Structures are given as C-alpha cells and as structure tokens.
Amino acid sequence: MKWRQLSYAGPVSLASAFDQGVALQSSFGNINTDNPDLSGARNSGAKIISYHGLADVLIMPQGSTNYFSRISAAVGGDTEVNKFNRLFLIPGMGHCGGIGSVSGSAGPPLNTNNVPLPATNQLGQPIQLFNALVDWVENNNAPASLVLSSMDGSATLPVCPYPQKATYNGSGSITAAASYSCN
Q1: Mean residue pLDDT across the chain
Q2: How many CB atoms lie within 10 A of CB 71?
Q3: What own/partner pairs with CB < 8 Å and gap ≥ 24 does 154-158 have?
Q4: Confidence (pTM)
Q5: Which of 14, 56, 75, 156 could form a disulfide with 95 if both were Cys (CB 3.0 to 4.6 A apart)?
Q6: Short-list 67, 129, 51, 59, CA closest to 95
Q7: Which residues pair with 53 in a beta bridge?
Q8: pLDDT of residue 108
Q9: What's the rounded Cα separation, in Å, for the pair 22 and 49?
Q10: For residue 51, which of 141, 127, 122, 138 has the smallest C-alpha distance?
Q11: Which of 155, 140, 157, 136 is nearest to 89 (CA)?
C-alpha cells in the first residue's frame, strides 16, 4: 500500500518516480522496455512482432510509434529495423483486444462480426500474430502484411508493418482486403 504515500513532491514522489525506476534497472535485470537499443536482439537473429490497437483508450498508440521511431533511428532507418522488428497498428482494436470504439447512431453496431481483428485462440490470445512470428523465425517469411478478418468473414483488412498504411486502391469493396495495398 506504499502507493498511497505518493505525492507530487517529497521523499516518495511522483516527480522522481521515473528517475527512481531507471536507477533500479540493474536490480531488475535491466528490463526497461523504453530502451530503443535492440542491437542485442538484432545481432542474435531474434525477430520481434509488436502490435497496438488504434482504438486503445488506455495506452495511446503514439507511444508504440514513438518507440518504433526511436529504434529505427538507433539501427539506421526503417528498412533496417524492419529486418528484425515489425509493428502492426490495428484499426478498431481496443486495449487487450476487442472492439475499441462506441457505435454512433449513424451506422450499424460494431462487433466482432463486422470489425476485422487478429484471430485469437480459445483464451483470447492473438494466435494470428504468434503464427506470423513463428513463420518469420522458422521459415524466414517476414510478414509484409497481415490480413485480418471479422468473425463472420464479412469484412477483411490488411494491416501493414509500420510506418506503412493500408491504402484503398480506388476500386473494389471497402470491406475486402484485396482492395487495399500497403504504402
């Protein structure tokens, strides 16, 4: 219950919480997830797939894009970072999966039957992303895009590795992944 003793200033302060966390990193195996130096992972041949729902109202996706940009700068640009690390931004996905928006009165209710989301296993874990990572690690097939599908198959959408975006080609159904390209 020490969190109740926090104040903005003082001996146990919020103002110094970040600095205290950095100072304690060596005590916790240097697991600071904000460090953009992933040279150890890159040099070991590791592959990383991360994702963020664009409709996450608890943790803003800008944090993930900022971190990716800092990794990119550290390793020599987007081409270099995408050799071992891919970030996928998923439209409509909220925090911890699921639909992240509220239906307005102008359209149909949003649900997993009409919003393309990553396929999950029975525990709700994003198995589609895991399978893409396994394919990349075991078969050297880096995911150029992932095609997401709604539960009833009525809508599909590609998601592209950041900083690319799915762009409508100008023809075809707006609910069909084939109508989009990664640019």
Answers
A1: 86
A2: 23
A3: 154/113, 154/114, 155/114, 155/115, 155/116, 156/116, 157/91, 157/116, 158/182
A4: 0.80
A5: 56
A6: 59
A7: 90
A8: 61
A9: 25
A10: 127
A11: 157
